[in-house]
Amino acid sequence: MSVVSQTGPDADAGTAILRAEGLTRVFGTGAGQVHALKGVDLTVAPGELLVVRGPSGSGKTTLLNLLGGLDHPTSGRVWLSEAEVTAMREREVLAARQRRIGYVFQSFGLVPVLSAAENVEVPLRLRRTPAAERGERVRAALEAVGLAGHARQRPYELSGGQQQRVGIARALVAEPEVLIADEPTGQLDSATAAVVMDLIRDVVHERGVAAVVSTHDPILMERADRVVELHDGTLAAGG
Ligand SMILES: Nc1ncnc2c1ncn2[C@@H]1O[C@H](COP(=O)(O)OP(=O)(O)OP(=O)(O)O)[C@@H](O)[C@H]1O
């Protein structure tokens, strides 16, 4: 693991899958403006697990939402390989999200009435993957996260760690280039969190995915290839 500060676009920007330049996000609230993110530059390479740390309110979720095309910056730009996400129409952003990005959420985000396999199948249905192909891909994704025997169980029949592994299978089943995970272990005990983070690290390295994971947890930073730290919306040296 190396810990670095990034103050400008990287020299390796040419090989980056995910790149952000000058990302700024200002929220208007009843109490005035909140400058959640202030000119953040960042690149993430294929097969790299980047951890974003920082205190509560430092801008981690804001940054991940912008990198994942879930929110639009007040100023600044985001690229997925050569394609500028921030210049796309809403419909193109949606297509890029469905085809190229997988998301993992702190609260798992599973549909309670669907089985583990049906939850994992959702991104394939959204991409209109043929039914014949979907079954095999769901099976392989569940097997990759060690849940081959739990395909028919509903989320409430699974432990928190198992639910998050379903969440990871769902994020990866459509073979995205980028994985965005916002506090993926925030609801898990530390032993389960370590297992889930090991899994994320292994799939990122094996599949060459560019991953951005936010966390408060120092244990998880040990699994990172690189750590950056947010303070009041600004990237600083990690620790
Ligand atoms: N939709 C919004 N409207 C107004 N202010 C917002 C909004 N979203 C975030 N903020 C503010 O932006 C700042 C950064 O919030 P953000 O959620 O990105 O921090 P965070 O580092 O993810 O925090 P935590 O670790 O607690 O999840 C905070 O001051 C927050 O109150």
TrEMBL record:
The UniProt entry, under SMART domains, shows: AAA
What Pfam families would the database entry show?
Answer: ABC_tran
Q: Which domain of life is it from?
A: Bacteria
Xref: SUPFAM superfamilies: P-loop containing nucleoside triphosphate hydrolases
Spell out the InterPro entries in the cross-references.
AAA+_ATPase, ABC_transporter-like_ATP-bd, ABC_transporter-like_CS, ABC_transpr_LolD-like, MacB-like_ATP-bd, P-loop_NTPase
PROSITE patterns named in the record = ABC_TRANSPORTER_1, ABC_TRANSPORTER_2
Q: Does the keyword Iron apply?
A: no
What residues does the ABC transporter domain cover?
18-239
Q: Which UniProt keywords apply?
A: ATP-binding, Nucleotide-binding, Transport
A GO MF annotation of the entry reads:
ATP binding
Q: Any idea what this protein is called? A: ABC transporter ATP-binding protein
Naturally occurring in which organism (per UniProt): Myceligenerans salitolerans
Q: What is the phylogenetic placement of the source species in the record? A: Bacteria, Bacillati, Actinomycetota, Actinomycetes, Micrococcales
